[in-house]
Each structure stands twice: as C-alpha cells, then as structure tokens.
Amino acid sequence: MQTVYSVLESGDSSVGILESPTGTGKSLSLICASLTWLREHKRRKLEEGLRWEGDEEDEPEWVIEAARARKRKELLRQREEMEQRLKRAREKEARMKKKMLAGEKGEKRRRVEEGRVGADKQDDEEQFALDDYDSDREADSNAESAISGLPAETLALMEKLGMGYGKPKVEEEEEIEDEIKIFYCSRTHSQLTQFINELRRVHIPPALQSKPASAEPLLEEGEFKHLTLGSRKNLCINPAVNKLRSTTAINERCMELQQSSTSKEKRCCYLPNKENQPLLNDFRDRALATIRDIEELGDLGRDIKICPYYASRSAIKPTEIVTLPYPMLLQKSAREALGVSVKGHVVIVDEAHNLMDAIAGIYGVTVSLVQLKRSRAQLGMYLQRFRNKLKGKNRVYVAQVVRLVDSLAGYLEGKSGMKGEGVVEASELLAGKGVDQINLYKLLRYLQESKLARKVEGYILLTETASNNGNGATKAAKAEQPSEASTPTLQHIQSLLVALTNPSKEGRLFYTKDPDSSGMLLKYMLLDPTHHFKEIVSEARAVILAGGTMSPMTDYTSHLLSYLPVEKITTLSCGHVIPKENLLAWTLSKGPSGKPFEFTFSKRAGREGEEMIDELGRAVLNICSVVPDGVVIFFPSYLYLDTVVKRWEVVLEPGKPSIWQRLGKRKALFREAKEAKAGTEDVLTEYAKAIDGNQGGLLLSVVGGKMSEGINFSDRLGRCVIIVGLPFPNIMSAGWKAKMSYIESATIEKMGTAGEGTLSSRQAEGKAAAREFYENACMRAVNQSVGRAIRHRNDFAAIVMVDVRFGRENIRKKLPGWIRVGLVEGCQERGFGELMGGLGTFFRGKRMP
Fold this sequence. Notes:
The chain is α/β, with parallel strands linked by helices. 48% of the residues lie in helices and 10% in strands. Among the domains are: 363-465 and 484-530, Fumarase C, Chain B, domain 1, CATH 1.10.275; 580-732 and 772-844, P-loop containing nucleotide triphosphate hydrolases (Rossmann fold, 3-Layer(aba) Sandwich); 735-768.
C-alpha cells in the first residue's frame, strides 16, 4: 500500500510493477492505497484553491476569513449539488428495495414499444443493399468533410458560427468537471465483479467537507462514486439488437440505428437525447449513488428505459473509480468509442502478468482458408442478388474485395501441401491479378463506412433462414453449420487489412496449419506491444501493474517500458501471508532409483524418455502415499501429458498392475482435456467430489492450460502441486523465431543508438536479451501454475518442481520471492528419500480438517 501511494504521489507517468500472491489481500490493498491517495489529493487541491491572494497581505483577519468563506462556497456549490443528487438517488434506491422486499409493486413503468425498433419487419432484402458511394470521400483529410461532402473550410466556419453540420454531438453539462479518477482494469467482468465486491467493503474518510472539520462532512465515509463500463454486447437493452450473434454485428447494427438515414420509427428508442435528458440524469445519479457491477448497471438501464451503454458516459466525468475489462482500456479505438481519456488520471492494471500477451492478442488477427472460401462464396451470392444495384464506387470496391479475397485464398491454397509454418511477406499475399493496384487504405475506409461485412452476412443469414424454414430444416442440420458463422467472415479480412497497413517492424505475418481442422491459417502477430501501451503511460498520471505472479519482471522494464528512465519505475515483490512452516518448496533432480530428471525435448523421446516417465510414475506414487487429499500435476504440454498417460497405462511386468492402475488405487484419477470449457468444469466438479468423499484426487493438468490460471486449488483441493519439466515454447516455431529475432535486433539498435559497446558485444547482448525473454515466458507460465495452491493465510501446501534445471540459479531467481523463501536449502542436491522424509514431517505437523 505504501508503494502504491508513493507511485501515485510521484505522478509524471510513474509506473509501479507490484507482485502480491493470491490470498494476501492484493485487491483490498490496491483499493485502500489508491482511494486514500485520491481523497487526500482532492483535499489538498481544494485547500490550494481556497488560498486567497490577501492571505499574505496586511488585511484584518475577519476580511480574510470572509473571503475564504465566500471562495469556499463558490468551490463547493457544484460538488454539494452533485452529492445532494446522489444522496437523493440513494434514498430512492433504498425505498425501492424496501418496497421490493415488502412485496409491494414498484413505480409504474413507462410503456415503450420495445419491439418497434427494427421489429421483425427487417426481412426485406433491400435493407442489405449498399448506399451510394459515388465520391472519393476516403481521400479527404477531414472526416466531417467525408460525411457531408462540404469543404473542410466551410464546415469549420459553420462550426464557429454555431451551425454545426454532420453527426450530432452529445451535449454535456458544462458544470461537471472531469474529476481525477482511477481506471481499474482486469481481464474479465467476472474478475471485475470480485473487485467490486471488495470495493463495497472499504470505508475511507471523505475528501471534502462543506463546513469546518468538526461539522458534518459533504460525503459519508465509504461512499465512492464508482462506475463500471462494458461493451454494447454487455449493456445493450434493445431486444432487436442484443439478439444478434456477434459483437461486430451488434456494434454495427447499433450504429446503423443512429444514422440520420434511418427512419424515425426504426431508430433505437433507448438512445439518450434532448427529449429524455431527465432520464439520462436519473441514470447518472443512480449509477453513481451505489456501487454496481455490469449486470446491475444493465438492469438499471432496463428499469429507467435508457441505453446503459451510452448513458454511462454521462457518469464518467464525476466518478472516482472506473472499472473496465482489458480491451476497453488497452485498445485506443475502444477508448475513443467510449469517450474515455486517461490523461492526468491513474491507471491500475490487475492480473498484469499477461499484459503483453493481451495487447498482442487485441491487435493480432487470424484468418483461415475456410473463412476466405466462405467469404468468397457469400460475396458471390450477394453480387448475384444486388449486381444491378451496384453503381459507381460500390461496383469498383466490391470488385476489389473479391480480387483481394481470391488472392489471399490462392496464397493459402498454395501452402496447403507444405508442412510446418513460415513467415509471409505482404507482397506475396497481394500477388493476385490486379491486386497490387489496390489502394489498401482506401479499401479499408470503404469497408468501414459501407458496412459491407455486416450487410453481406445479414443477407446470407436471411436467405439461409428462409431456406431452412421452407425445407423444414432439423436441429441436427442446423448444428452442422460452421461455428465461424457467428462472426462476419468478411470482418476477419477487414481486420487483416488493418494489419497489412501497419509498419512491418511492429509485427509479422505467418502461415500455419490449423491444429483443429488441418486447414491453413494466415496469422498476423504483433511483436512489439510497446507503442500501444506507451500512449497510456505517457498520458496517465501514474500506472500500476499488479498481479499475483509478476515474476520475472525484467520483461516489463526491458521491453514494455524500455523507454522510461529507471527512476520512474518502481518494482516490489511481496511475501506471502502464510507462516513459513505452511510451505514446503523443493526442486527434485532425481527419482526413487537415482535416475536424473531432465525433461528437455530431446530427452523425452526414445527409450531414455520412457525410462524417465516410468521413474516419474514411481515418484508420483510415493508422493501420493504421503500427501493427503488433492495432488495436482502440471505437464509442459497436452502432447506430453498424453504420452505420459499412455506410458503409465503399459503393464511393465506381467501379472502386475501398471503404474496408472496403482495410482488409481491411491487416489481418484482425473486429467484435463484440451476441449471445451464445459469439460473442464465437469472434471473440477468430480475432482472436488472425490476429495470431499475422502478418496483423494490426482489431477493431471498442463502449464498454460485451463487449470493453470484462474482456478482455485485451495485447502484440500491442492495439498501438493507438482511441476514436471520446464514448459519452454517451441523455439523453432515461426512466431517465436520472429519474436527472438525482433528482440535481438531491437537490443542491438538501442545499444548502437546509445553508442554502447562494439558490434560484436552488441550482438552478444542481443542474443542474451532474446534468451532472457524466452526463459521469462517459460517461468511466468510456471509461476502461474505454482500459484494455484495456497490461496489464503491458513492454507498450506507442498510444491515440488521436477527437473534438474530448476536447481540452476538463472531459473531459480525467476521464481516468485515467496517460493524462493520456502525452498528447502540445498534441495537440488538431495535425493528422493530426503524429499519423502520432508513431506512426511511437513504433513504430520499439520492439523487436517
């Protein structure tokens, strides 16, 4: 908490990288430290604003006091009005809750024709025809000029005279200031809901007082102005829009219903406007009056009958803490769409261990050959229906889209017979007939403005629905439809165009086999997330990156934040809250018969690999005989997990049970499947049942799999976690080759710019930096898996890392501090017997529930 406070106080784009294990109160610490700083910062700013120029002059005391009182009243008037509105909103909420609990009927709701917006009358095919696109609007430098067709100078003059032309602007109440606030983001809304529940528990003295300190404060203790933000998919309350299958379709349909070309009776009736301004104000006040999660915010919009997605924007400025998922903060276009600016505010990124991967994922693109062929077929059907209505630029650009899709599909078809994967040059993708003459920037603008992807998909769905209804299609037939249909296939091509127009230094294109269908994939991988995150860091007052397992931290300082001076970055790794005797950590180098464990890729194969798997089986058998309740094993990959299980199922001696059968007698056996999430939940449920029934359980999982992150193996569910080998990524893959090459060249370039070292020394440093990044990726995954056990202060568990390489200093130093503290001294040199003795002593000294 002291470190968070210090970083926020320093400001000037300072960054804190903080690690605190799960169960140590990380969320509460972030809340208490950041909100305490925020309230004190507000108080200081208010006091500074109350200083009167006459303070230093020779004026009577009563004159100075009167001037201060007058200035205080002016400064607090607006804040008092806001707080009074929130107080009334809280009272209203309390009355409504009391009525609901008493079984009384609430206020009579407004009658709204919910079905009138785009009701089921949209079956007319004409809605999918393209609007005229007769000018080179995309070449205009002014976006408003592109919309209206008027010269930019004319638009500027009209704007100056108050005759604004173009899309309507949302009017804001001028008296509401943009309060300094905290933007808190995490990966998912479920994680944000957990954080919001913690926020409800916190009580901090108010920042502002309307009277002297001894009088009643303006705010009651613990009443924070909080707002959670979500996408249209989370918050849309229009039944004709939120029933659409994809996020893209929902977004585009929503925008379409706001256009001036849409008839008044078909526009969305929930959108904020001048007529429903009182409802908008009511939504704002009630949203800020109590702490709500994303579902409760949606329910509030339904109750008031106003769109919570757009109405929530009115509450952004006066709020103190905003919670939102990763993509809405990390993606610039998402921030702009929400009207969110982080300039001068505080940004806290929780679960930040995968921040760089998250940014790369947001800006990465994958297109399959199957999708390209489907897009081409859909375009053909669309053209067949609307060919005669396509005129001017529409005809030109749709023809360009067809040629581009053909060129991309042709390239992937040419790679179908090849094994492995490889790097793709953009010029290779544009080798089709006439494709090299296409202006990708203009084509991208056309796709964005014409909404071609949604219109093609909408028409295809309409024809498929009509065909299915006419033919009496069965559920089984519908089930055979490709899953990718849930997303407009042309949208993938549009996203790929964005990638193709990015500087080649930022990312790379690859072709590879689809592991699920064996078809070909085209991938764009963002290699350098620095630029995208730098925009946030440079604008924000301060940024906190927090997580349970941030180690090793050098990736953040050396790559993501390499442009920042050392003094602007603060790092902290907290210990665990458990007593030292509640953790036994051990690096195991040898098995029961003394055979060394080294699960490198080369040593996993052949007879040597089988003997090592047998030795591992005997080690696990012994460990399961000592460890009570649940044991979780993490393997380097699904492929190796399958290999190990198959080997353990082999009967090594005739007439004797296999290792797998012997393990089954010790504990109930479970394994993680690579398939859908539902299967994972079923496995976890059965695993917990076995432990509750005192059978004990042995769960075989994969580092980086579904069980390695976000799953809680607390108490009896995880009395021992075993890590088998080091899960290094495939360094021979095209993606990792590109990453390593990029880091190497970037390090050499940086050292050359600074004039450091000779060329050979810079090259050596480049290779070392790439190797360090590679090791860090491996160890971050290991640390995530290790963190599944010991989830609260009274928990206890053993952690056994099985591989001789875990004993090496360069690997050990990348473990979290709390694991290093718990490592038994010299364990890497000790035999298996000493591990068994340590485990026996450890668990005998614990009181079992």
